[in-house]
Amino acid sequence: MLKASELRDLDSSELANHLTETKTELFNLRFQLATGQLENFSRISQLKRDIARIETVISERKIAAGNQG
């Protein structure tokens, strides 16, 4: 689980890459849940929180870029 401060230190391409990886992992875990193979149920909620954190940082950057221009 990443902290928001750690995410703010990443550049935009790294953030987008991390978001894609996290969403892919969440998709795979949901697939395991549907087939009854999932062992760590708490990982799903952790990934959801990570996705929300990443999207929040991306939104903050868009807002900051809009205010500068």
Write the layout of secondary structure elements.
Elements: H1 4-8, H2 12-35, H3 42-68
Helix pairs in contact: 2-3
- Major sheet description: none
Quick one: overall form? elongated
Helix coverage percent of residues?
A: over 70%
End-to-end Cα distance: 33 Å
The total strand number stands at 0
Radius of gyration, in Å, reads 14 Å
Number of domains: 1
Q: What brief labels describe this structure?
A:
elongated, 69 residues, single chain, Helix Hairpins, mainly alpha, 81% helix
Can you describe this structure?
Helices cover 81% and strands 0% of the residues. The protein has one domain: Helix Hairpins (Orthogonal Bundle), CATH 1.10.287.310. Helix 2 packs antiparallel against helix 3. The protein is mostly helical and 69 residues long. The protein starts with a helix and ends with a helix. The model has no long low-confidence stretch (mean pLDDT 94). The protein is elongated, with a radius of gyration of 14 Å.
